[in-house]
Amino acid sequence: MKKILLIFGVLSLLIFIRPALGLNTNTTNNNSLNTTEQVNTSEGDNVYEGAFKGIKQFYNYTGFANATSGNLIMIFIGIIFIYLGIKFDYEPLLLIPIGAGVIIGNIPFVAGNQTGIYETGSVLNYLYFGVVKGVYPPLIFLGIGAMTDFSSLIANPKLMLLGAAAQIGVFATFLGALYLGFNLPEAGAIGIIGGADGPTAIFLSSKLANGLNVLADGTTVKNLIGPIAIAAYSYMALVPVIQPPLMRLLISKEDRKIKMKPPRAVSQKEKMIFPIVALILTTFISPSALPLLGMLFFGNLLKESGRTERLADTARTKLIDIVTILLGVTVGASTQADIFITKDSMLIFGLGAISFVIATCGGLLFAKFMNLFLKGDNKINPLIGAAGVSAVPDSARVVHTEGLKSDPSNYLLMHAMAPNVSGVIGSAIAAGIILSFLG
Amino acid sequence: MTHMLLYIDQISEGYVILITGLLIVFGALLTLSLFFKFGLPVMLYIYKVITKRKDKKIKDIKVEADEAFTGEIAAAISVAIHMYLNEQHDNENAILTIKQARKLYSPWSSKIYGTHNKL
């Protein structure tokens, strides 16, 4: 108690002494020269003016002064993304990081202070490097490989063709983009949205439509990584909305009830041989897709070899989580309003929706076509064709729930996973082909 | 004029890419599926020949695992194990929570009680 009193006393003494000291200095000043006082008062005016200027300058640096309608629209879109992810559970692992990224990227700021994602040297720019140079997508593929069980595909190899059939969406969109006036590399990058594979879309657009490459006629390609990635990821999240109506439209009620025989058990040896053989075969055909397919099958080998469970475990949990966080936030932040809100972005969004529709229809119709040649219990349920667009594992889940609606005892998930994973391989091969033609 | 020419050129190149691209994608996945349909059993057979028994034919080992053992059975077994391991706590003994307290009477500030019952 005494101590507190003592401290309090000392403090109050100090406070009382300070103005006294200040007064003393002032008086000495007054005594010495009159002019100094004059200067002092004018300086006081300056101080107020300066403070006002400082506040004004500070205000000019805030978001309130620099906000444009574009920024506000994009922030609103970011909030919608987060809302969709939380409320409807549409791929929350993607939509929430991207939505947060959209908000981060559209906070208005004064250029030139190394803040924005497109300013060299800023933190976000360094993280964005992984997107621009295509570093993140192969790492994501490593994790996907370590997660994916290819056994349903090995048990029923003919389902691989469904994954190829859905790639018609890629090439049809490519052609559509050409007709809309995009040049070849840009059209190629836009087309890959139809592959329904976010990492592949980012990989290809970072190689083709990165705003750096110069075409033969001297023009520079546009930077479309942001719009393409956002379109690919948002349509992937909307697979549960886009696909079911098409399924009901194209597949008759009887066909929807077809029960497929359960896939045979696959031995461990086959599972180990698969990644090695598939790696060699696919990359020999399409070497440009090596970063994607190489990592995908490498990850799968880690999983299936049975000796590297630790590595596989890291690849499919920690590593892919870290990369997804970085990828989501930077892709979201790359939608800075002044670069993102253009006519091209709107066109890309339109084309993306069409490409998803075409890809789904391609898979469904090809499944019906395959059924013409299959007999008895070898017949496939045409619904699983829709899983040929990659969007792992969402489209397989959509097929499963759609199948359950027409027959509550028909479990299609296992069968749908086969075209689904082959869709991943197919879209990576398609990306490789487009890259080798146009890169 | 040149622009027009370029435009047409692009579209025609687009069609070339469309057709070749689709063919290559189909070709690649077809080779893969054919390999796993026919090539893999041969490979497994050769492996078996190299390691030991030489008298077996390809037909005999086409499907290595038991035909009756499908993925559905495996799924059922794994679900059962999963349920057994993870849902056990649902059957915990409920009496645990209403066990009788050791001390029937414990006025915490009573001096007399403290002298009689030493902790």
Automatic annotation (TrEMBL), chain A:
Example GO molecular function: lyase activity
GO cellular component: plasma membrane
Pfam families tied to this protein: OAD_beta
Source organism, top-level taxon: Bacteria
Compartments, record wording: Cell membrane
Topology in the lipid bilayer: Multi-pass membrane protein
Main subcellular location: membrane
Database matches in InterPro entries: OadB_MmdB
Keyword entries, A-Z: Cell membrane, Ion transport, Membrane, Sodium, Sodium transport, Translocase, Transmembrane, Transmembrane helix, Transport
GO biological process, one term: sodium ion transport
Sequence intervals crossing the membrane: 64-86, 93-111, 123-147, 159-182, 224-251, 272-299, 319-340, 347-367, 417-438
Protein name, per record: Oxaloacetate decarboxylase beta subunit
Organism this protein belongs to: Lutibacter oceani
Lineage: Bacteria, Pseudomonadati, Bacteroidota, Flavobacteriia, Flavobacteriales
